[in-house]
Amino acid sequence: MLRNWNGRRVFVILLALWLVIMTGAVTVFTWSHPRQRAVLGMGWGLIALWIGLGGTLMHRFRERIRTAVLRIPVDWRLRFIGFCTLLALLEEVITTTMTNLAPLFGVKTGEASPWLCRFFSSRWPPSRCSQPCSIRTTQKSTFPPLGK
């Protein structure tokens, strides 16, 4: 059975195991914090959809996609940029969907976005905000202060 296993397959499986173990450990350690739990829940959704489903579909249909892409009568550089942009937009659809599903994780929409939490935490200088930040809460930020 192990004769059919090449180095690449073993490496990908080890990476997947490492991802699941490390993300699972972080999930266990932060379970009592609702905002972090929501961020990690969204991360698990991203892992399942983008890596699990998307990666499996890309691997399964790679020859069909390759054949179809090579038939497009455009310079290879434009095809490359176009399909990179398409994949980036698909990834944005998945991450935006995860952010909009925040109420299912027990937090307000936008409250659990790690970038929004970081940038609009209580340490963010108010003079840089052009509008009142609706994300601010009465809870103390769990992120380290900016610039330290």
Give a brief description:
The chain has 148 residues and is mainly α.
- Main β-sheet description: none
Overall pLDDT score: 78
In terms of DSSP E residues, the strand content is under 5%
Q: Strand-and-helix sequence, N→C?
A: HHHHH
Terminal CA distance: 53 Å
Written account of the structure:
With 148 residues, the protein is mainly alpha-helical. It has a domain at 33-124. Helix content is 61%, strand content 0%. The chain starts with 6 loop residues before the first helix and ends in a 29-residue tail after the last helix.
Question: Would you spell out the secondary-structure blueprint of this structure?
Answer:
Blueprint: H1 7-29, H2 34-60, H3 62-70, H4 76-100, H5 114-119
Defining traits:
148 residues; flat; 61% helix; mainly alpha; 0% strand; 5 helices; single chain
